[in-house]
Specification:
331 residues; Alpha-Beta Plaits; nine-stranded mixed beta sheet; four-stranded antiparallel beta sheet; 13 strands; globular
Length: 331
């Protein structure tokens, strides 16, 4: 048996604008998706999700399904990719379970994809690099989000804090975030990342002379946030997060519920609060000093479906357990 995991993510600043090649900053946070792989003798592949209660079985060229099996299409794709890289066939049962709420702006699908690629790489005994794992997960993300930026699979693979730009890749920021906590408040409103990205792109194409400067401003804001993080100036980070929220409102991805959550967090003592992810629903992210977290979280719990108080996950994709069939060693 093999168990691999990958963390959720929060985009601190830069979402939507990152799709058009502006930079963004993402944090990995300690909520994890896990993939459990059990080898089986027969050449068949069984994929299931504990969260969704669905299953796909592929055996002798036949496909059978149970429940809403379409949600498993990305991990089936990963199975095909890894098998192709390995150049050999193995039978297995693969089960996904995740602590990350779906459609919440926390990169649930990317974390599942990264954990799956990591686990199958171990099963096939392929020494996949972090870059290869991220690239494989990106192919699965394309099924979910059509034209993803790549930031979700990157931060979930590598962990920590990164500055990401679509055309240039990413750099890791070596920053001390121990004095602060990340608070996530879920609006409870579902949304489609792909649909929201298309909505924003349509608006930008309609008013390019108006929105091009706004996109440039968003990129400059990210650079300023990176400097503030490196300086440990979290007050400045919070102020810039608030400005970024205003930019996201300007491109049409906020709503009354998200505004309520953002302003409750700010009034309760957050350094900054904004939409995280695609908007239109999903979650907001607030940054706060550890001493202020309880008050903020209690205030948000009165108006939010779910509230998470999280630390940054320094580690990205990892093997949590490996029991070899022959010698039963664990690693």
């Amino acid at each position: 048996m093999i168990i691999a995991s990958a963390p959720a993510k929060v985009i601190l600043v830069g979402e939507h604008f990152v799709v058009e090649n502006e930079p963004a900053i993402a944090l990995a946070v300690e909520l994890r998706a896990r993939t459990i792989v059990e080898p089986i003798q027969k050449y068949e592949r069984i994929y299931s999700s504990k969260n969704y209660g669905c299953c796909i079985k592929i055996s002798d060229g036949k496909v059978s399904t149970k429940g809403n099996a379409e949600v498993l299409s990305p991990i089936v794709k990963i199975g095909e990719i890894v098998e192709g890289i390995a150049g050999l066939r193995k039978g297995y049962k693969l089960t996904v379970e995740s602590e990350i709420p779906p459609a919440s702006g926390m990169g649930s699908s990317a974390a599942v994809a990264v954990a799956t690629a990591t686990a199958l790489g171990k099963l096939y005994e392929i020494p996949l690099t972090h870059e290869e794992i991220s690239n494989i997960a990106y192919e699965a993300e394309r099924i979910v989000h059509d034209t993803p930026s790549g930031i979700d699979n990157t931060i979930s693979t590598y962990g920590g804090v990164i500055v990401f730009r679509k055309s240039e890749g990413f750099i890791r920021l070596d920053v001390d975030l121990s004095p602060i906590r990340v608070i996530i408040a879920d609006s409870g409103l579902p949304r489609s990342t792909g649909a929201m990205v298309k909505k924003v792109r349509k608006l930008k194409n309609k008013y390019p002379k108006v929105l091009d400067p706004l996109y440039h401003t968003a990129g400059r804001l990210v650079i300023e946030v990176a400097k503030a993080l490196e300086d440990g100036d979290f007050k400045r980070v919070g102020e810039l997060m608030n400005i970024n929220h205003g930019l996201l409102s300007a491109v049409g991805v906020s709503n009354l519920k998200l505004e309520e959550l953002v302003h409750v967090a700010r009034r309760s003592g957050a350094l900054g609060a904004k939409i995280t992810g695609a908007g239109g629903g999903g979650s907001i992210v607030a940054l706060a000093y550890a001493d202020d977290v309880q008050k903020i979280a209690e205030s948000l719990q009165r108006v939010s479906e779910r509230v998470f108080v999280l630390e940054v996950a320094r580690e990205g994709a990892r093997i949590e357990y490996h029991c070899a069939a022959n010698n039963m060693d664990t690693f």
